[in-house]
Write a structure and sequence with these properties.
Elements lengths: L1 H34 L5 H7 L1 H6 L5 E6 L6 H14 L3 E2 L7 E5 L7 H6 L2 E6 L4 E6 L3
Parallel strand pairs: 1-2, 1-3
Antiparallel strand pairs: 3-5, 4-5
Amino acid sequence: MSRHRFAVFALISISLASSLWFLLDVITAYSYLLSSYGFGVPNFDARFEALHKSMHPRSVLGYVSDNPANNAQSQAEFYLTQYALAPAIVKATTEEHFVVANFHTNSPNAAMLRAKNLVLVQDFGNDVYIYRNTTR
């Protein structure tokens, strides 16, 4: 009987520890997202508000970011940018005439922008920019 109690106690302990680690992971991820530009829909709406007000609703824009391309946060920010600028269409390409830039610094990588043939049109603050593709 003692072995069974020990096994049940060990199983409960492992379950609680596993749940605690999962909870700590969630809290860490949430605090990271809040600290990096206050990740979320209301904050993206606020960041892109000036651009949204100045553009035509039927605009088609490209998109560029300084995040790594295959990063989950990069994908989430792209979708949030699409949402914040709706009803305009935002495509994950720099081949459109105008390209919205979602950067995390106020000094973007100039060499990368030149390589993509992008020239600054307007800085909307909050590290949001509009570039023009010189080949289009």
